[in-house]
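From: lab user (bench 3)
To: helpdesk
Subject: output format question, protein + adenosine monophosphate

Hello, I'm new to running complex predictions and I'm not sure whether the block I got back is the full result or only part of it. Here's what I submitted:
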Amino acid sequence: MIPISEALKIIERETRLLAAEKIDLENAVGRVLDQEIVADMDLPPFDRSQMDGFAVKSSETKNAPVRLKIIGESVAGKGFGGEVNAGESVRIMTGAPVPSGADAVQKVEETREETGYVEILEAAKLGQNINLLASEVTKGARIFERGEIVTAQMIAAIASFGYARIEVFKRPKVAILSTGSEIVDVAETPRQDQIRNSNSLMLKAFADRICDAHVLPLVADNVESLRKVIENAVRDYDVLITTGGVSVGDYDFTKPVLRELGAEIFFEKISLKPGKPTVFARLNDCLIFGLPGNPVSSAVTFYLFARTAIWRMQSAKKPELKRGFAVAATKLKAAKERDSVLPASVATNEKGELEIESLRFNGSSNFIAFARANALVFVPQGKSIEKGAVAEILFL
Ligand code: AMP
Ligand code: MG
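Helpdesk reply: Thanks, we reran it on our side. This is the complete output you should expect:
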């Protein structure tokens, strides 16, 4: 049995990096940058008005009210070409360039207009209502780094600097294969002794956000069919994720078939509950994750291992789940001989604390409870986290 940290090291060591490709920015969310994003211009690119109003020399408004001549206007997209001199002002709109000579904008509500003149009712302070040239970003500044995962919130910043197309790492092609003679398709009505396939669509839902995932047809606990499917899958995909058939039962054929095919098996027993029999192997150039069949076990091991590998293949700088801390609402207990990673629901309580409610009240097959999970709680082997104590969590 190896610890989780060791398993992650092995995954890091065995994961090869994929090449890059250029894509449209509109498809970039969830992709990993293979380039820096650099500001190609100052922002704002000119002294910009934050208000609709009048551009003035602030010193002239000190003894407001004061009457100034309107000598022109500055509109967003078309500034006023000339200069503001003593006794003058320029009508200005939000987003328009502040004309030279002016050093403040008084908003329209603080002014009264007469033909050709404006009365500034309140003194304008130096710099008031103006975003100065380059006050947000200077040309040449590095905005994002290679290895960052593009989020929806980043798009405006990237778009501002003209990256209509960007270099990102290719996504791995990932196959999902559920195995088990008792498993039937979701659309079918299970006969006696059968259950529906919940793993394939669950894993596809997890994986779709981070790679190109395809669900393969179900395969029964049968050495021949399993061998055929795996042989084909490793030819066509970068990663194969299987579920079921990795324990020590008489019909658990995943490992025997991998061995027979000559796969290199890197680990097959992790000090982890749930997920102890998780297998990590490689055949040809395809990484194989053999996850336990139990839906909650497959979910936890997908998040801890397969997901990390999929991000690593894309050179993501931070492939792990985001960490945080929260208070245990109930006592959380680990297994005696294994570290436990418990699916949990984390929410803010009345005291304003982030609080963990463990969801594994009914054993690891409880995927109904798992449906409410938004985090995993790590509890070291043999230890417990008392009610009210702070625990480390990983956000799903
Ligand atoms: P196994 O890992 O094959 O021993 O399966 C462990 C448990 O998970 C058994 O109760 C299986 O019936 C169940 N199971 C296996 N594969 C799936 C699947 N694709 N969908 C739902 N449950 C599954
Ligand atoms: Mg089975």
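A quick orientation on your result: Residues 323-395 form a domain with the Beta-clip fold (CATH 2.40.340.10). Let us know if anything else is unclear.
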